[in-house]
Prior knowledge:
By secondary structure, the protein is of the alpha+beta class. It is 61% helix and 20% strand.
Amino acid sequence: MEPVVIFIAVAFVLAIILGLSAIRLIRPYERGLVERFGRFQRILEPGLNLVLPFVDVVLKVDMREVVLDVPSQLVITRDNVNVEVDAIIYIQVTDPVRAQYEITNYVLASTKLAQTNLRNVIGELDLDACLASRDSINLQLRDVMDQATDKWGVKVNRIELQRIDPPADITDAMSRQMKAERDKRATILDAEAVRQSQITRAEGSRQAQILEAEGFAEAVRRKADAEKYRQVTVAEGEGQAILTVFKAIHDGQPDEKLVTLKYLEMLPKLAEGEANKIFLPFEATGMISSIAAMVEGVRDKNGGSKAKSSAPTTTT
């Protein structure tokens, strides 16, 4: 009985070992490559997978994105300036079969390829273009590397330049140039501010003169309107008074006081001028009329007496 028990126990142990060796666990970020007798068979997806124990060999490939640090290196630009450049590459395996069988170490190959292409791209640009066109350099490097790594089953997702450091003397020259440019801008801004201030001041002075002239013209106009209104009012009053006197005279009931007052008011105006004038008061006309009447009466009286003396005497 003992050999049978031992055989069963050994068989059970062997079955467990065979069962465990036939199970392969693949994680979500991995892919399994099955090789049977040295030949590629299939790809294992994430989860539990069964393979032939002691016959199939499973190679696991990491499908996650990998960050590669490109070591710094000296690169000569097109204008013969030595700059120190380094970068970071983000790559990811898209085809596990080609990444495993087309290249021995795609990480090292991608790093060296990035260094080579970085020298080529930077060498075609001037220093100013290198410092100002990092985004275009990143895109150009990514396109070049993506074409080269495509046959490896690796995709270059992104490339970022970390540093582009020119020599110390070039840095000092650039600092002086930047300072001079900023001084130039400051001078231009100061001159523009002074010009704008002068223009504003002149515009304000012109506007003030215009407003002052308009105010003076308005004052003159209002003064003239007031004088015109006064003269019109005075003329209308005088005209109304003359009409009243004229009407009273023609109606045969003159107001002697009013006529005398108006006569006295008109005497200074009648006396104006260089011509010699003789003015007779209104009362003098009455006196002249009386004297004329008296003279006429005396003349009539003398004429009558002469007529009587010349007539012949008749005796009855």
